[in-house]
Write a structure and sequence with these properties.
Helix content: 40-55%
Structural class: alpha/beta
Radius of gyration: 23 Å
CATH superfamily of the largest domain: Response regulator
Strand order of the largest sheet: 2-1-3-4-5-11
Mean pLDDT: 93
Bound molecules: alpha-L-arabinofuranose
CATH class of the largest domain: Alpha Beta
Number of strands: 12
Strand content: 15-25%
Distance between the termini: 61 Å
Largest sheet: 6 strands, parallel
Shape: elongated
Low-confidence stretches: 1-22
Amino acid sequence: MIRKTLLAGVALAAGLMAAGAAGAADLTIGFSQIGSESGWRAAETTVSKMEAEKRGIDLKIADAQQKQENQIKAIRSFIAQGVDAIFLAPVVATGWDSVLEEAKDAEIPVVLLDRTIDTKDDSLYLTAVTSDTVYEGRVAGEWLAKTVGDKDCKIVELQGTVGSSPAINRKKGFDEAIAAHSNLSIVRSQTGDFTRTKGKEVMESFIKAENGGKDICAVYAHNDDMQIGAIQAIKEAGLKPGTDILLVSIDAVPDIFKAMAEGEANATVELTPNMAGPAFDAVIAFKENGTVPPKWIQTESKLYLPDTAQAEYERRKDLGY
Ligand code: AHR
């Protein structure tokens, strides 16, 4: 009798483990990715695939082509497929509550990648893997203030996608950093939607409006791709980027290191493209042992200058993304 009860207990525990504890190899995760607006975004997609493969995870990526409505459709489709978790890189910060409630009702954990959302209910997501984007803006602003010293400096700003958390926060951080320096002022600020093409277009209009670019002291771009567009516009206007006009931006993609090594850009703040690695680990720990991760898994933000640009360019090329 005792033996029978013990055996039944072992069988039940084994059954529960099989039903409740998914190993990484059993996991299917849906990733609603924004699109491919920047080199950084393309790198994030590549790294996500590499990190999934390492862990034997079946990662299904849906490219939303920069549209929130496509992201909402993708999330609904992942819910219908019964995936084990959903990763969401939210194109804008607002408008997610109802679809995330649907995921919650279906008991599918959601992890935010690289951008945050505005919600009163933080139980709608398991964790957010992001950098401190306000801090990134502050680092850029402090670098510029230090570099310029007492000189008057008119800044033009290329903002990211309107309504996205990094655009809102990188502006805030930069504004805070330069507020104490009355010689620094933002004279023009417009969105370039995080793309190279729009960054160039907007920079051309800034140059026209600012005495052929001669009145511009610095460009602050919310990402490197817009900055690379701005570099082209500055060169076409007959000015020297990095010398006539100072350039600071965010992401640390290989192309900006190349520009820095060639003296055409001055500083970048790194945003790691490996958001998925920590996100996979959090989901695995949650599924396997019920470990609840912190609400924010923060990635590092680091300032890079031209002295290490060539080495960083080579190193990043070898990483394969
Ligand atoms: O959310 C991260 C931002 O999105 C990156 O800085 C930018 O390049 C991307 O498009």
